[in-house]
Design goal:
14% strand; Rossmann fold; 272 residues; alpha/beta; 7 strands
């Protein structure tokens, strides 16, 4: 029987939370009693994802009155104001507690490109979203957790990648950003420990999301990749929910900070 109520009464923000890994973590948090505010771009083409997430969150709450409540906030993580607004919405969403307990910096982009022809625009978009966006939301969350609530404290989770540890010929603009997220979590763990704020990185392996669905649609590529993974399959976004709950839960990971948790089915240790 799955554990329940591990995040009861907590409030979290998740950037890029309506699809893929962010959505799976959001649903996992809601089931554990956490109130969640997801950030999204607010684009018309993405409305279907938001609508279905709202419907799923409502179904969870109807089934379990102890589940968390969902709210959402549109905005581009590349803009400083987006992070501040997201944090303010979460504090309001927390009700009388007036707290932010968990921040998951998940929003990111990944477009494969040849190094020799890679455009400055793609490089800037990738760095601004994956690194600048992670920095802005981490800083805004940390300011709330450290300076504007009593007692201070919280958990910040940066979504890095196995790509932070290995090279990728078509990812020369992407892998450095994920190494940057890992480094950001290491440094903020040092900077924020005195406030009781824990900062850790999650490093997914090959997870089936909208970012790689076209690549994994190639049977030869998918079969090759699955053959390299000791557990014999590519990951599902839901595979990240449990690790994200673990890092968010003080009772489970209260002495874990500055860490990098690989969630890759064993791929990294089999790269030979």
């Amino acid at each position: 029987m799955p554990l329940k109520g591990l995040l009861a009464g907590k409030t979290a923000i998740i950037t890029g939370g309506t699809t893929g890994i962010g959505r799976a973590i959001c649903l996992g948090y809601l089931r554990q009693g956490c109130n969640v505010v997801v950030n999204h771009l607010g684009l018309e083409k993405d409305q279907v994802h938001l609508d279905s997430l709202i419907a799923e969150a409502s179904a969870i709450l109807a089934e379990d009155p102890a589940a968390g409540r969902l709210a959402h906030e549109a905005g581009d993580v590349r803009q400083v104001a987006t992070a501040a607004k997201l944090v303010a919405t979460a504090v309001e969403h927390s009700g009388p507690a007036q707290r932010l307990d968990i921040c998951v910096s998940n929003a990111g982009v990944c477009t494969f490109a040849d190094f020799l022809t890679l455009s400055p625009d793609l490089l800037e978009t990738t760095f601004r979203t994956n690194v600048d966006g992670a920095f802005y939301v981490t800083q805004a969350a940390a300011r709330q957790m450290a300076l504007h609530q009593s007692p201070p404290g919280g958990s910040i989770i940066g979504m890095s990648s196995i790509s932070a540890l290995v090279g990728g010929g078509l990812q020369t603009h992407y892998t450095p950003t994920k190494a940057g997220v890992t480094s950001l979590m290491q440094s903020t763990a040092v900077a924020l420990g005195k406030y009781g704020i824990r900062c850790n990185a999650l490093l997914p392996g090959t997870i089936r999301t909208q970012l790689n669905e076209e690549d994994l649609a190639d049977d030869a590529k998918r079969n090759y990749m699955e053959g390299r993974i000791p557990l014999g399959r590519t990951g599902d976004p839901a595979d990240l929910a449990g690790p994200a709950i673990f890092l968010a839960c003080e009772e489970l990971s209260g002495y874990v900070t500055g860490a990098q948790l690989l969630v890759d089915g064993g791929l990294f240790v089999n790269l030979q």
